């Protein structure tokens, strides 16, 4: 009798051990799977970059050392071809507009990539230093290809920037595309003097008028400033801004009017200046 009882208990223990083993194995596997988030393997392709992107970039050209900045528009076809490149470049105080350019790009599975563009200067602009532009880029995770950062890889150039998608419909609302309160962040270089930077706000009425206030640091000297200007926006999401004191800027409007990339263009240009307006929500406008 005792032997039968022991055999019965042993059988029950053996069965329980099998059940526990089978029950725990999937849990361990699930735990291992949870340790590998999908973001670690983004798997980007050329299709992630499609349509028109506005961009801004700034930095330095070397030998001799001089500042440079640019804003522009790149059009990607989603298959590795840059159909068009256009930009405005301020090179040490002299600006050029490049109205046509074509190129190629590649995207790696990890969402890095590279691009190569042949640029052609506007006949009315001075010659440019970089007729063949090269840059590496990183598509920002979670943006579905709507934004990427970049670094120019031409020899003798130290220049970085940011690009964001322009909606397929462009800017049909024209001046009304840009309206509300925007945060200003800008930097540049006073020719013959030194670096400059500013932060502030811009209030845009959607009808072609802009006002605001900022604090400027000119080589360390702090200057408060009030600004009044007029602006225009074209249907292709490029635009211009003119201050009442005569300063002029080229614009590229991205992300449906929530951001503006700008660069100073007036002659004689006394400094390089470029930056970004970023719309602030929940302040004084209803969105």
Can you characterise this structure?
This protein has an 8-stranded antiparallel barrel. The chain is mainly beta and 287 residues long. The chain has one helix at 2-34; strands spanning 50-61, 66-77, 81-91, 94-107, 112-121, 132-139, 147-152, 157-165, 179-190, 194-205, 209-218, 221-233, 238-243, 248-254, 259-264, 271-279. It has 2 domains: 46-165, Porin (Beta Barrel), CATH 2.40.160.20; 174-279, Beta Barrel (Lipocalin).
Poorly predicted regions are 1-38
* Count of domain modules: 2
Total helices: the number is 1
What is the number of E strands? 16
At the first level of CATH, the class of the largest domain is Mainly Beta
Q: And the CATH topology of the largest domain? A: Porin
Helix and strand run: HEEEEEEEEEEEEEEEE
Radius of gyration: 27 Å
Which descriptor suits the 3D outline?
A: globular
Largest sheet: 8 strands, antiparallel, barrel
Percent of residues in beta strands: over 45%
Distance between the termini: 84 Å
CATH architecture of the largest domain: Beta Barrel
What's the layout of helices and strands?
Layout: H1 2-34, E1 50-61, E2 66-77, E3 81-91, E4 94-107, E5 112-121, E6 132-139, E7 147-152, E8 157-165, E9 179-190, E10 194-205, E11 209-218, E12 221-233, E13 238-243, E14 248-254, E15 259-264, E16 271-279
Antiparallel strand pairs: 1-2, 1-8, 2-3, 3-4, 4-5, 5-6, 6-7, 7-8, 9-10, 9-16, 10-11, 11-12, 12-13, 13-14, 14-15, 15-16
């Amino acid at each position: 009798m005792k032997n039968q009882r022991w055999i019965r208990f042993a059988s029950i223990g053996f069965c329980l051990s099998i059940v526990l083993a089978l029950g725990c194995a999937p849990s361990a596997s699930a735990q291992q799977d949870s340790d590998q988030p999908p973001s670690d393997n983004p798997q980007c392709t050329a299709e992630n970059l499609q349509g028109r992107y506005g961009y801004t970039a700034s930095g330095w050209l070397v030998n001799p050392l001089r500042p440079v900045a640019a804003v522009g528009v790149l059009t990607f076809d989603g298959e590795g071809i840059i159909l068009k490149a256009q930009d405005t470049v301020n090179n040490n105080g002299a600006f050029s507009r490049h109205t046509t350019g074509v190129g190629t790009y590649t995207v790696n599975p990890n969402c890095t990539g590279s691009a190569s563009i042949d640029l052609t200067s506007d006949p009315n602009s001075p010659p440019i230093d970089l007729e063949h532009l090269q840059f590496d880029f990183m598509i920002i995770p979670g943006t579905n290809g709507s934004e990427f950062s970049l670094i120019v890889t031409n020899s003798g150039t130290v220049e970085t920037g940011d690009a964001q998608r322009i909606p397929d419909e462009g800017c049909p609302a024209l001046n009304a595309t840009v309206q509300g309160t925007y945060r200003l962040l800008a930097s540049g270089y006073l020719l013959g003097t030194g670096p400059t930077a500013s932060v502030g706000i811009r209030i845009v009425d959607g009808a072609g008028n802009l006002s605001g206030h900022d604090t400027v640091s000119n080589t360390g000297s702090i200057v408060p400033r009030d600004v009044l200007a007029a602006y225009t926006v074209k249907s292709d999401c490029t635009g211009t801004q003119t201050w009442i004191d005569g300063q002029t800027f080229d614009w590229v409007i991205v992300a449906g009017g929530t951001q503006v990339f700008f660069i100073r263009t007036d002659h004689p240009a006394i400094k390089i200046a470029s930056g970004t307006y970023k719309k602030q929500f929940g302040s004084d406008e209803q969105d």
